[in-house]
From TrEMBL:
Keyword rRNA-binding: no
Function: Chaperone that specifically binds and folds nascent G alpha proteins prior to G protein heterotrimer formation. Also acts as a guanine nucleotide exchange factor (GEF) for G alpha proteins by stimulating exchange of bound GDP for free GTP.
Signal peptide: none
Name under which the protein is recorded: Synembryn
Gene this protein is translated from: RIC8B_2
Keywords linked to the UniProt accession: Chaperone, Cytoplasm, Guanine-nucleotide releasing factor
Family, similarity comment: Belongs to the synembryn family.
Organism field: Xenoophorus captivus
Matches recorded under Pfam families: Ric8
Keyword Cytoplasm applies: yes
Amino acid sequence: PEVGTTIRNKLVRLMTHVDMGVKQTAAEFLFVLCKESVDNLLKYTGYGNAAGLLVARGLLAGGRGETQYSEDEDSDTDEYKSAKPFINPITGHVEEPMPNPIEEMTEEQKEYEAEKLANMFDKLSRPMGVRPDGTLAPLEETLIGRPEENSDTDSD
């Protein structure tokens, strides 16, 4: 959305300007042009560009505040309607569809990848600890060789 020479592209570029006043003014102006509709703002700017304004207004959950705009909601152009399935909602950029990597795999390759994925989930579910040097390791390794802190000394 920030790439191009249209007014919208230039305003979206200003939403990431270093000057906070310029950034906020551009975001507020675009928000008003979108009839203060979070969905419309996200459609035209992308979530990443609009996040700051939405946080400042408490609108991250979407919706619309108390507004006095017309009820006409259909602002989709033919160009937008044709590109909608390819728009990344976070960046607002039109992306080419990615090929499905599984289509070209043999059954053995699919099985191997599934086992690899299961092993990665298994590693993620194991409890971890921190070694004295600050690196992560399985919890068992971090507990071995560590002196017990309150072993035989009771001060009470």
